[in-house]
Input
Amino acid sequence: MKFTNAIVRKPSKSMVQGLTSANLGSPNYQNALRQHKSYVAALQSCGVKVKILDADENYPDSTFVEDVALLTPHCAIITNPGAPSRRGEIENMKHVVKDFYSEIEEIKSPGFIEAGDIMMVGKHYYIGLSARTNREGAQQLIHILEKYDLTGSLVKLEKVLHLKTGLAYLENNNLVVCGEFLSNTGFQKFNRIEIPEEESYAANCIWINDKVIIPAGYPLAKQKILDAGYDIIEVDVSEFRKLDGGLSCLSLRF
Ligand code: CIR
Output
């Protein structure tokens, strides 16, 4: 498979009011802007065309665009974030995806989904049931996916914010696994790249066209992904980590 496009949104000054449980202090907006630029450059170096959306001051977490849409090869699905402060982010995204998709679907209340809880493995989509994604939302999503000859299944989360906080699919049956997913029987069939707990933040990495972008500063995780045969690009996203955000959360790739 190949990705040709990505969508990102510049961080807003209001990001300092973003949701977090990280206890790492408030993000520095200027640093975040710099880190975001490097992130965009990394995406571009993987061969995707990046659409950069303007910052939206009304939504402190709006730089985490991944959560508000699922972009499949056949349709765009606008989610319905479980976090009330993020729900309004979908309105603008509905307009943005019109430039790329003619088939646009929507998750509706009382169904909630944040797409950080969705991991694509070929034509199958794993859907995490979390504090942000509920069963009703997941069932709506599976129903939509099936219309397009795609499938979905549920994964119950215990501790992590989103499914992809602890899992990343790197194609070719290779799966980065960390924390609560190490013992999950649903993921035993993959070639597993196990990330030690002290570097769990690096489990949220992204495969783009045979390269893997990982957060800077996680040498054990880096070595394991190198050993699996990937070219690696490291990007410092420490300001976004302060808001529980990882590399995948910062873009939609399709
Ligand atoms: C939030 O709590 O919604 C944001 N501060 C972080 C979202 C991270 N997104 C993701 O893991 N997909």
Q: What stands out?
A: Residues 123 and 149 are 8 Å apart (CA to CA). The first strand starts at residue 5 and ends at 9. Residues 18-20, 61, 64, 66-67, 83, 86, 116, 161-162, 165, 243-246, 248-249 surround citrulline (CB under 6 Å).
